[in-house]
Amino acid sequence: MIPSITLTNKEQELGHLVVIVSKFSKLPTGIFSAAEKTYLKGQVETLKQDVVSFNRLSYCIYVYFIKEEHDPSKRLEASRNAGDKVAGLFNAQKATRVTIFDTEPDGDLVLAFAEGMALGSYQFLKYKRDRENENTLQEIEIYSKTLEEPENDPSSLRPSSLVPRPSSFVTRHASRVTELNIVLEAVALCRDLINEPNSFLTATVFSKEVEKIANEVGAKVEVLNKQKLAALKMGGLLGVNQGSHEPPTFTVMEWKPAGSLNAKPFVFAGKGVVYDTGGMNLKPGDSMLNMKDDMSGAAAVAAAVYAIAKAKLPVHVVGLMPATDNRPGEKALVSGDIITMNNGMTVEVLNTDAEGRLILADALSYAKKYDPALVIDLATLTGAAVRAIGKFGAVAMQSNAAKELEIFKTSGYHVFERLVEFPMWDEYGEQIKSDLADLKNLGPAEAGMITAAKFLEKFTSYPYIHLDIAGPAFLDKRDSYRGQGGTGFGVRLLFDFIFRYFATSLPRH
Ligand code: BES
Ligand code: ZN
Ligand code: ZN
Predict the structure, then answer these.
(1) Which atom of ligand 1 has the smallest separation from the CA of 452?
(2) Helices 176-195 and 203-217, axial angle in degrees (round to 10)
(3) Which residues, 6+ apart, have CB-to-CB distance to 88 below 8 Å?
(4) Angle at 278 between CA 274 and CA 280, to 5 degrees
(5) Do 388 and 369 form a contact (C-beta atoms < 8 A)?
(6) pLDDT at residue number 166
(7) Residue 12 pLDDT > 80, yes or no?
(8) How many Å lie between the centroid of ligand 2 and the Cα of residue 282?
(9) Are 508 and 373 in contact (CB under 8 A)?
(10) Which of 329, 339, 395, 428 is a Cys-bridge partner for 243, taking CB atoms 3.0 to 4.6 Å apart?
(11) How does pLDDT run across 98-136, given as a tens digit for each residue?
């Protein structure tokens, strides 16, 4: 559970308060004494603090002083980080309700602050009996002149200065706060799925969890079982599953509201390896740690479609989630095996630890039946992506979707799930040709994230974007509001992309 965000236009009662301000002259009157203002100035100007605290008898006031920053994405991110910091302070004192007093002219910063507070309060405590350190914050109220208009009057929904909103969306979505709550709830849900260990989250349980959330929001959901997968000749997914005692699943979640803006759907595909031991090419030493996160792509897809459906966005989207664990076993694939994929192509499996591309390739071939406007996959695909850019962003590649990727990159900066584009040059494709089969699943040691993407590209025939999220999907150590463990990377990104795509109006949909 994460705290929910609400708007208030009540007169302030005495309670925990955060004041967001960019200039001393804008400090609300009647809250601070002259001595306190002098103290605040000293903390901000001399000590360069951005969060300053004032202890009253029964409550606390924190002032978040917005630093000058011209890059809008950095401003928003600083606000999220400050929100996380302040939430930590409030949770430490067991506060349950906090009001944010906004003095800024646009609502973006206060919403980002609330976002940081809410996501920073996330915890995964399902298996913990000692709840002493459980976060207490439940309600974040925003008192904001900019956002205070009544929710049901569409004309009052001011488009954000940063997220362009097409008119057809403005009248349809409830309000920015409602939307924010929905997407944050989806991030929490995504994190829960990632943080669940394989002892609970088998492929079957994953598909059941997706069925639950799809039913909650009225999205269509279908789970293809092993028999169906065999009938569909999903050789990649079935091959990876061979070593497991648990059957694979392939979950399809679809949101197709009447009056969708896109005639052709967006398809999101997510890698759902519920545990990656490496298979017969067993991962050595510590490299197997945290491999329960290898379904982060599938979790992000499920959560993004959930958020889009819950917000009732007028877009047709389909989520494809192939799922299995990857283990050694009597029947497991061994190096040199040749498998036939869903689209009939043959693949020489040279390393059983390069399994993600095998299950995703089947999902990408399956995506063709939707005649998609665009297919985006998210996958914790390669260590090479982590080595290239670390945890600070995801590696992105595209084929025939350069404009779409530009929009995605803008979304990436806005939600601070940043993307770095790598090339899809033909030469990398040459490196995964096999002597014995059509393709091999292993390229040279260099540029492994690119050869993996080239492998996937062979199974596509539509505008395609590949996101390798191996770096940012899961964090060993807590990093601000991203937390520790599953971060939910991709959910806020996909949600933002939908708005931006329709506001940019590309010819394709
Ligand atoms: N799931 C891993 C990639 C990964 C690495 C995710 C680190 C998160 C953190 C993937 O299945 C894998 O094992 N890839 C291999 C591919 C190699 C054998 C070509 C890798 O990157 O080492
Ligand atoms: Zn692997
Ligand atoms: Zn993997």
Answers:
(1) 19
(2) 170
(3) 120
(4) 125
(5) no
(6) 59
(7) no
(8) 9
(9) yes
(10) 329
(11) 999 999 888 899 999 999 999 999 999 999 999 999 999
Predicted local confidence at residue 161, as pLDDT? 41
Q: How far does CA 475 lie from the centroid of its chain? A: 13
- Give ligand 1 pocket residues (Cβ under 6 A): 276, 294, 351, 353-356, 380-384, 386, 442, 448, 470
Q: Tokens in use for 180?
A: 């924010």
Q: Is the pLDDT of residue 287 over 80?
A: yes
Q: Rounded to the nearest 10 degrees, how much is the dihedral formed by the CA atoms of 472, 478, 479, 485?
A: 20
Distance 469 CA to ligand 1 centre (A): 11
In ligand 1, the atom with minimum distance to the C-alpha of 356 is: 11
Q: Note residues around ion ligand 3 (Cβ under 5 angstroms).
A: 273, 276, 294, 356
> Which residues have CB under 8 Å from 31's CB, separation 6+?
17, 19, 61
Indicate which residue's Cα is closest to atom 7 of ligand 1.
Answer: 383
Between the CA of 363 and the centroid of ligand 3 the distance, in Å, is 15
| Distance in Å, CA 442 to ligand 3 centroid | 13
Q: Which ligand is nearest to the CA of 469?
A: 1
Instruction: Single out the residue of 274, 465, 268, 477 nearest to residue 356, CA to CA.
Output: 274
Report the chain's terminal Cα–Cα distance, integer Å.
Answer: 36
Report the candidate in 92, 85, 71 with the shortest Cα–Cα distance to residue 20.
Answer: 85
Give the confidence band of 144 by pLDDT, cuts at 50, 70, 90.
Answer: confident
405 Cα: distance to centroid of ligand 2 (angstroms): 26
Q: Percent helix, strand and coil across the chain, each rounded to 5?
A: 40, 20, 40
Specify whether the CB–CB gap between 217 and 307 falls below 8 A. no
To the nearest 10 degrees (0 to 180), the angle between helices 491-504 and 296-310 is: 50
Adjacent-strand bridge partners of 251:
223, 321
d(CA 252, CA 264) in angstroms, rounded, equals 17
Q: Which atom of ligand 1 is nearest to the CA of 326?
A: 11
Closest atom of ligand 1 to CA, residue 351: 18
The DSSP call for residue 123 is: -
197 in the Ramachandran plot: left (φ > 0), alpha (ψ -120 to 50) or beta? beta
pTM to 2 decimal places: 0.95
For residue 349 the two structure tokens come to 């499996």
Ligand nearest to the CA of 287: 1
